Protein backbone atom coordinates (compact mmCIF):
# COMPACT_ATOMS: atom_id res chain seq x y z
CA UNK A 1 0.00 0.00 0.00
CA UNK A 2 2.89 2.40 0.70
CA UNK A 3 4.05 2.02 -2.90
CA UNK A 4 0.62 3.06 -4.15
CA UNK A 5 0.60 6.11 -1.90
CA UNK A 6 3.87 7.35 -3.37
CA UNK A 7 2.87 6.58 -6.94
CA UNK A 8 -0.47 8.34 -6.51
CA UNK A 9 1.15 11.45 -5.06
CA UNK A 10 3.68 11.50 -7.91
CA UNK A 11 0.89 11.14 -10.48
CA UNK A 12 -1.10 13.89 -8.79
CA UNK A 13 1.88 16.24 -8.81
CA UNK A 14 2.61 15.54 -12.48
CA UNK A 15 -1.00 15.87 -13.64
CA UNK A 16 -1.51 18.94 -11.45
CA UNK A 17 1.50 20.63 -13.03
CA UNK A 18 0.21 19.79 -16.50
CA UNK A 19 -3.28 21.06 -15.60
CA UNK A 20 -1.86 24.32 -14.24
CA UNK A 21 0.23 24.76 -17.38
CA UNK A 22 -2.81 24.18 -19.61
CA UNK A 23 -4.82 26.65 -17.53
CA UNK A 24 -2.10 29.23 -18.06
CA UNK A 25 -2.34 28.77 -21.83
CA UNK A 26 -6.05 29.62 -21.96
CA UNK A 27 -6.56 33.12 -23.25
CA UNK A 28 -7.86 35.59 -20.68
CA UNK A 29 -10.63 36.79 -23.02
CA UNK A 30 -12.00 33.26 -23.26
CA UNK A 31 -11.88 32.81 -19.50
CA UNK A 32 -13.49 36.21 -18.80
CA UNK A 33 -16.39 35.26 -21.05
CA UNK A 34 -16.91 31.72 -19.72
CA UNK A 35 -15.42 31.95 -16.20
CA UNK A 36 -18.55 30.98 -14.27
CA UNK A 37 -19.32 28.08 -16.60
CA UNK A 38 -15.77 26.73 -16.40
CA UNK A 39 -15.68 26.92 -12.61
CA UNK A 40 -19.20 25.46 -12.31
CA UNK A 41 -18.44 22.46 -14.50
CA UNK A 42 -15.11 21.86 -12.74
CA UNK A 43 -16.80 22.04 -9.32
CA UNK A 44 -19.50 19.63 -10.46
CA UNK A 45 -16.89 17.17 -11.72
CA UNK A 46 -14.95 17.45 -8.47
CA UNK A 47 -18.10 16.66 -6.52
CA UNK A 48 -18.76 13.61 -8.70
CA UNK A 49 -15.18 12.40 -8.14
CA UNK A 50 -15.56 12.73 -4.37
CA UNK A 51 -18.92 10.94 -4.34
CA UNK A 52 -17.58 8.06 -6.44
CA UNK A 53 -14.53 7.84 -4.20
CA UNK A 54 -16.64 7.75 -1.04
CA UNK A 55 -18.93 4.94 -2.21
CA UNK A 56 -16.40 2.62 -3.83
CA UNK A 57 -14.77 -0.37 -2.17
CA UNK A 58 -12.05 -0.50 -4.84
CA UNK A 59 -8.85 1.15 -3.64
CA UNK A 60 -7.53 1.75 -7.16
CA UNK A 61 -10.73 3.55 -8.17
CA UNK A 62 -10.52 5.70 -5.04
CA UNK A 63 -6.91 6.55 -5.87
CA UNK A 64 -7.92 7.43 -9.43
CA UNK A 65 -10.69 9.73 -8.23
CA UNK A 66 -8.24 11.39 -5.83
CA UNK A 67 -5.77 12.07 -8.65
CA UNK A 68 -8.50 13.45 -10.94
CA UNK A 69 -9.89 15.60 -8.13
CA UNK A 70 -6.46 17.01 -7.29
CA UNK A 71 -5.53 17.74 -10.89
CA UNK A 72 -8.84 19.48 -11.52
CA UNK A 73 -8.44 21.45 -8.29
CA UNK A 74 -5.01 22.69 -9.40
CA UNK A 75 -6.51 23.62 -12.78
CA UNK A 76 -9.27 25.61 -11.07
CA UNK A 77 -6.90 27.40 -8.70
CA UNK A 78 -4.77 28.50 -11.63
CA UNK A 79 -7.82 29.62 -13.61
CA UNK A 80 -9.16 31.62 -10.67
CA UNK A 81 -5.92 33.54 -10.29
**Which value, in Å, is the CA radius of gyration?**
14 Å
Low-confidence stretches: none
Biggest sheet overview: none
Mean pLDDT: 89
What does this protein structure show overall?
The protein is built from three helices and no strands. It has 81 residues and is mainly α. The longest helix has 28 residues, at 28-55. It is flat, with a radius of gyration of 14 Å. The mean pLDDT is 89.
Write out key terms for the chains shown:
mainly alpha, flat, 81 residues
Task: Please sum up the structure shown.
This protein is mainly alpha-helical.
Topology:
Layout: H1 2-25, H2 28-55, H3 59-79
Amino acid sequence: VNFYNGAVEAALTLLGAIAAFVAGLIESDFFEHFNLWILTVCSLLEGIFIIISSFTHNVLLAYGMYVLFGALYMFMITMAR
